[in-house]
Amino acid sequence: MAESTRLVDLVHSRIDEFINTRESIVTTISPDVTVLVEFSRQFLSGGKRFRAQFAHLGWQSVPVPAVGLQTPAGAGLSPTLPDGLAGLVSAAAALEIFHAAALVHDDIIDNSDTRRGAPSAHRRFEALHGAEGWAGSPADFGRASAILLGDLLLGWSDELLDEGLDDAPDRTSARRARAQFNLMRTEVTAGQYLDILEERAWLTQPEAELLDRAIRVIVFKSAKYSVQAPLVIGAALAGADDDHLDVLRAFGLPLGIAYQLRDDLLGVFGDAVVTGKPSGDDLREGKRTVLIALARERLDAAALGTVDRLLGRDDLTPEQIVTLQQIIVDSGAVDRVETLIQQNVAQALAALAGSSVAPGVVTALTDFAGTVTRRAF
């Protein structure tokens, strides 16, 4: 736990340090542009840093002499951290900035008002427009500005990753980590498109294919990017061989699926205080998740008609949300998703048995599997 906390602190510091260097560039352009830096800081100040922690566990999983994170009080990163760890911290921070960029764009796509209990990026820009009394539509300004903020964060994540790779002691390992980052970026973008597609194309798809299509979205939009890729990037930086990376992939994919299945339940039934988003938000957005696909399999014509009529309406009343929630529960879909979560966690943990993963990391990954999949409603 202390190692994990220390890693998160180092990632926070690295992000702050990096943004400070970019602020000096932005402020030379125009004082009007500094809001991009301000909103970036706000958006990057929270979160659980799961991706950074998985990257660290991937790095630690390679069986080499143990390297701790302790550094002298007040010391900087590069001069005092063990070989390779400064690069790992920068790569982990790059993953967090990439995640922030994805969230900014995701909230625009989903028309979400909040993120982590605060206004989403496009709503912040919209409020800025209103407060300043500018011309035109506040909503249009908010969306356009947030798209640019997301693009800026994407670019910054790439720059920070390059800085991390420059600190890596082994060029081959750095190239392999870069290749995995590039693959992750392509897969999550394609997965996001598939998510958008399923919200609209479900009407013309065979009912028997909806579950497989929902699982495909989970794999590419979330599972690989949330767990598998950070693990592999961290291990690649530590010089892991192909067999070792394959073990982490075999662990990371089912755990990532379980993580997203839990997130889907939270999106329908979650407490806004816990999730930072309104309860039933996924119902308003019309998310065609595994939960919805499983529910549809067992609904009668009347219930199915209600789901198809209400799901995806942004003006859902609290009573209509409760109606949809009850239909989903009565279908048995919640229990089936819980079973899928347990099965995927078991599959992930089985991949670690007898593997080359360092024993201490096996314990940490086992604990993490519980942390990311047993989040409360």
Automatic annotation (TrEMBL):
Family the UniProt entry places it in: Belongs to the FPP/GGPP synthase family.
Cofactor: Mg(2+)
GO function term, MF aspect, one: prenyltransferase activity
PANTHER family found in the cross-reference section: GERANYLGERANYL PYROPHOSPHATE SYNTHASE (PTHR12001), SHORT CHAIN ISOPRENYL DIPHOSPHATE SYNTHASE (PTHR12001:SF85)
Keyword Metal-binding: yes
Pfam family, one: polyprenyl_synt
InterPro entries: Isoprenoid_synthase_dom_sf (IPR008949), Polyprenyl_synt (IPR000092), Polyprenyl_synt_CS (IPR033749)
Alphabetical keyword list: Magnesium, Metal-binding, Transferase
Name recorded for this polypeptide: Geranylgeranyl pyrophosphate synthase
Keyword Magnesium: yes
One of the GO BP terms on file: isoprenoid biosynthetic process
Species per Swiss-Prot/TrEMBL record: Cryobacterium arcticum
